């Protein structure tokens, strides 16, 4: 059973998401919160596996709440930020802060459920094309800020290859098939490159790779 918490300042949105998620036999909605501040205390108390986090809320928004939760919780949940527009700068900042992916409020119920299950699985990138588009829009801005990645040159050739394949949305199993290596070998490479990048998960790793110019959006 995967436990889910819903955070949104609109009660109607919370009710709609709850109805979708709670109808599934393998998912359980354990709580709700109406803002980022309440979310932080409730998540510490309820310890959900996945949080659906509205990105724009009064007071503590979804970005700051995501950052605080991931920094302060000893075993933090996976966070999916929920937004109206996929090209929202708030979404990019939330992903950079460590959110594992995002959902559009207009997503179909089956897309919402698939996203929750995918982030729990943790070995595939949600909506890689959308992440590429977000990164492309921010790349010039990041370059002008002069962020020099400390990990350039530290990745082995195989780790770099795995990172590029991750950015296309391939799962660990698909990367293994592409490179003709075992699943365990891929997991080892992923773990090593995440450590070198200082990334929480593959989503954050791909964001860092685009930001640095290591991967160029197409």
Structural features, described:
- With 218 residues, the protein is of the alpha/beta class.
- The chain has 2 domains: 2-121, Response regulator (Rossmann fold, 3-Layer(aba) Sandwich), CATH 3.40.50; 132-212, Response regulator (Rossmann fold), CATH 3.40.50.
- The protein has helices spanning 11-22, 36-46, 62-72, 89-97, 109-121, 128-145, 157-167, 172-179, 183-197, 202-212; strands at residues 2-7, 27-33, 50-54, 78-83, 101-104.
- A 5-stranded parallel beta sheet has the order 2-1-3-4-5, sandwiched between helices.
- The longest helix has 18 residues, at 128-145.
- The protein is globular and about 50 Å long.
- The N and C termini lie far apart (38 Å).
- The model has no long low-confidence stretch (mean pLDDT 89).
What structural category characterises the helix and strand content? Answer: alpha/beta
**Strand neighbour order, sheet with most strands:** 2-1-3-4-5
Number of strands: 5
The Cα radius of gyration reads: 17 Å
Report the CATH topology name of the largest domain.
Rossmann fold
The outline comes out as: globular
Helix content: 40-55%
Low-confidence runs: none
Query: Averaging pLDDT over every residue, what do you get?
Result: 89
Q: Give me the number of helical elements.
A: 10
Strand percentage: 5-15%
SSE string: EHEHEHEHEHHHHHH
The main pleated sheet reads as: 5 strands, parallel
Number of domains: 2
CATH architecture of the largest domain: 3-Layer(aba) Sandwich
Modified residues (4-aspartylphosphate): 54
Domain HTH luxR-type: 148-213
Protein name: Response regulator transcription factor
Keywords: DNA-binding, Phosphoprotein, Transcription, Transcription regulation
